[in-house]
Amino acid sequence: MSKTDEIPEDILSITETPNANFERIWNSLHGIERLKHMVLEHFLTCLDKTRIEQWCKRYYPEAARLPELLAFELGFSGKVLFVGHPGTGKTQFVEGLSNALGERFGKLYLIKVGSLRSKYVGLSSWKVTKAFNYAKQKAKEAPVLLFIDEFDSAAPNRDNSQMHEEVKAAVNTLLEEIENITPADRIVVVAATNLFEQAVDYAADRRFDMVVDFKRPNFFQRLSLLNALLRQFEIDFEQRFLLAKKTNTYTQADIKKVIKHALNRSLSSNRRLRSEDLFGSLAYVKPTRYYNGENRPWTKTDEN
């Protein structure tokens, strides 16, 4: 293995897609079909420049300079920021998205970046540069989706007067690297954070084409998820409907925990899964806490 092929220690994982496991994950994201379509189409447009060229020729054949305008002033950077509470499916969405893109292009690498911080002077910035250089190297083989999780840790707000200059320098390097990456490099970027306004650097906003808010599922999304997960257990629709009502403020991960807890009860009793098991599990599985550490079971999220 050459030095350029060696995986830097700050790379958590690299996965080639299409991937059967990631395909299952993509298909398991219930109730957010419009969001899946929007983000997938956005990245397909970013990575396939012929899409825009063909669109311009079809709808604006007389505007000869329109492709140039789109490329240099109104072009898509291929960078999206995911914001949302833990358990709302941000990481799973990225994994499924990488597979959907891999199926369209024949091959794609999902590169997950780990911690880019170091206690040694200058090392954080060096790790950032090395991670991005590695992504560029892999992009010579196939398109790359570069995933930076816990973006609030990688790019904390530099307005903090107590922040060490070394950390500020690393944040600056990271934002510059993100800025310089373009779809022409065959790289798209997804960053994810549980915290945004409180923690992410103010200069990060303009690096992204869009910010996607992963909210806790509304009633219809919860019902869609429960229908998909419980239909084969022959739980009546009326019971699924009532359970969707009672799981207000629960994340997708919370709802799956409720079902798994109920399944443990039925398996240990060696019997079929009952609706009583599901409702009984609500007493043990509570919604994931909000940012301020509170549980707010009476918060009305369905109107959001």
Q: Would you give an account of this structure?
A:
It is built from 12 helices and 6 strands. It is of the alpha/beta class and 304 residues long. The protein folds into 2 domains: 11-214, 3-Layer(aba) Sandwich (Rossmann fold); 219-281, Helicase, Ruva Protein, domain 3. A 6-stranded mixed β-sheet has the order 1-3-4-5-2-6. Helix 6 links the parallel strand 3 and strand 4. The model is unreliable at 292-304 (pLDDT under 50).
CATH topology of the largest domain: Rossmann fold
Question: Order of helices and strands, N to C?
Answer: EHHHHEHEHEHHEEHHHH
CA distance, first residue to last residue: 51 Å
Whole-number average pLDDT?
Answer: 85
Helical segment tally?
12
Low-pLDDT stretches are 292-304
Q: What is the class of the largest domain in the CATH system?
A: Alpha Beta
CATH architecture of the largest domain: 3-Layer(aba) Sandwich
Helix content: 40-55%
How many structural domains does the protein architecture include?
2
The CATH homology group name of the largest domain: P-loop containing nucleotide triphosphate hydrolases
Number of strands: 6
**CA-based gyration radius:** 22 Å
Q: DSSP strand (E) fraction? A: 5-15%
- Give the spatial strand order of the biggest sheet: 1-3-4-5-2-6
Shape: globular
Largest sheet: 6 strands, mixed
Q: Structural class of the helices, strands and pairings?
A: alpha/beta
What topology does this entry show?
Layout: E1 11-17, H1 20-27, H2 33-47, H3 49-59, H4 66-72, E2 79-84, H5 90-105, E3 108-113, H6 123-139, E4 144-148, H7 151-154, H8 165-180, E5 187-193, E6 210-214, H9 219-230, H10 237-246, H11 252-268, H12 275-281
